[in-house]
């Protein structure tokens, strides 16, 4: 979770007042639509598309669920990175899909493993967090994005590119999105949870007009309309030119915390290995031989170290028995060093 002191509360209050003064008849009424039109127009401008190619909903995770319910089903195959976002694995399995994990390397999925899986039977979709991946922190290289885009076209599957961390790059250069490489085959998803405030529950998808129309029809049948006041608040906040300065302030805060994480791991856990992201929220750690998550979790809790169970991020939980996701953004550098030192003592 982002630290609460990063929330631009006063600016959001002003944005809420502006939204409800300017457009109450729309924002407080039922809205049978893909989202608040002014916000869809603004987001479409970011990607060079019209509002008919943008759906705004109640978090990108809910949009993932809508995609799963419209593109997957019992017996259909879904590829995910291994490890992957645990809630996506759960979402795909809820609709009866066969979830296939593709091993994740330092620069994206193992292409040889993915090619073998494709030849065994292409998926309906491939879910990827291609920038600063959750939970590993890695970024997929351009070469691998180009190959995934080529396979999507060749085999006819959808890519669900989940990109909530993409704007939080602390150093290095951006890599082109998968959406820019294969717009006819990609749902590009993002949200304002990490760049503004997660309680707004505001995510969006960019795709072809037909794909968005199909998704919007399912969404309207599910909830009539999304939470429009949140969308109006975010629109007014962005229209006032406040989002970019907020993102820059987050980078200034989070970058040193990522560097502190690297230093603390090198100091206290040299026998472990870890990813080296240039942004995002997470560093993925493979604990030394002999570590066991089932044994470590209760001991860590007793020692005052709160961990996420690494097994939950893998389609095959046993593969994550030595995996640890370190989320550094909400922790001060001093506490990062203290927490990792305490973890090292337990190991």
Assigned CATH architecture of the largest domain: 3-Layer(aba) Sandwich
How are the strands of the biggest sheet laid out side by side?
1-8-7-6-5-2-3-4
Order of helices and strands: HHHEHEHEEHEHEHEEHHHEEHEH
CATH topology of the largest domain: Aspartate Aminotransferase, domain 2
Structural class: alpha/beta
**Which parts are unreliable, with pLDDT below 50 for 5 consecutive residues or more?**
none
β-strand percent reads 5-15%
Q: Tell me the CATH superfamily of the largest domain.
A: Type I PLP-dependent aspartate aminotransferase-like (Major domain)
- Which CATH class of the largest domain applies here? Alpha Beta
- Counting DSSP E segments of at least 2 residues, the number of strands comes to 11
Rg over C-alpha atoms, rounded to the nearest angstrom: 20 Å
Helix content: 40-55%
Span between N and C termini?
25 Å
State the shape.
globular
Number of helices: 13
Whole-number mean pLDDT: 97
Please outline the major beta sheet.
8 strands, mixed
Total number of distinct structural domains: 2
